[in-house]
Amino acid sequence: MSGYALEEVLGRNGRIFQGPGTDRRSISEIREAIRQEKPLQITLLNYKKDETPIWVLFHLSPVFSREVGRVTHFVSVQVPIWVNLQVFGSGFCRSSGNSRVLGSRFCRNSSNSVDDNSSGTREFVFGSCRREVCFDSVGELGRTLPFDSYVDSDNRGLEAEESCKANHLEKQKAATVVSNILSTMMHYSEKMGKVICGKRCNSIGIVPLSSSLNISLGRIKQSFVLTDPHFVDMPIVYASDAFIKLTGYSRHEVLGRNCRFLQGPDTDVEVLCQMRESIEAARACTVRILNYRKEGSSFWNLLLISPVRNASGKIAFYVGVQMDESAKNDDQGLSPEMRQLAAVGAVKVAVRGLSAGVGPSKP
């Protein structure tokens, strides 16, 4: 994607991909995320080795030492974004029905559909050790020219005709790649005896649940998770023992992550869209989705998702109650669906009763 050879990139700072049109404010946001040791998703104008500009979705994620809680690395994934661009005085132009994307072989037409003329989107991944970002390199990240300065005396400049925004699939793709990289790093770090993770002990800055709420949730025997909608990617902030048993993941592998790690090659995209639309509309939904356990086996999950409001009526969490389709009625004759509804009700009662101790909530 960048045109650089591996040996040209290793050991160098990510600023080699910046150019005259790179937005200083975006670089400042990256610098601030590094300073605060927090994840970030942002659109960024980068440049290939041949100086061709390319818009990317830049996803940054810190890597922490589990033993001491300090940052050891930063992982970054760059996913190309399809946008409408025009270069004056060049062979690239935007017609009424189609637009060509600089530095890419993808096109988006006026209806926002994507024509893929290549083998597929590639992610460019690089890591920076903590030592690199703590000193002069951090300050130099912001030393780029204003966007307007890219227009030279020949009026050959880059102009974004539309605001450059990544779509949901691009955001999900970047987050999934980062998650997979972190999982691989965690696996090998355990073998080396220097265990790392993708979050601090309090889960990437998320306010921990109160002990009272944890106790109340621990009494609920169903498989469920709580996610926090006020953070990027709706990370899991609570996972029940039954969920751990059902999926095979340990709790430290789950907390702070989005539930998409349960998805696999045969998971239905339409079902995922249905879930996303329900969350955006703040309404409950029930779906049948193919999920995967840690060891790779699949199971049909009867998933109930519902917003959970605090005592003020504001959404504090979303609860997802999982039920293996093969599950039978329990000893009391309750169906899986009834047990799901009972679990959601118990979670809502616990959150409303103890909402004063669970941290901030937003509309």
From TrEMBL:
InterPro entries: PAC, PAS, PAS-assoc_C, PAS-like_dom_sf. Residues 236-282 form the PAS domain. Residues 283-337 form the PAC domain. It comes from the Eukaryota. One of its GO terms (biological process) is response to blue light. GO terms for cellular component: nucleus. GO terms for molecular function: photoreceptor activity. SUPFAM superfamilies: PYP-like sensor domain (PAS domain) (SSF55785). Keywords: Chromophore, Flavoprotein, FMN, Photoreceptor protein, Receptor, Sensory transduction. SMART domains: PAC (SM00086). Pfam families: PAS_9 (PF13426). PANTHER family: PROTEIN TWIN LOV 1. This is Putative LOV domain-containing protein.
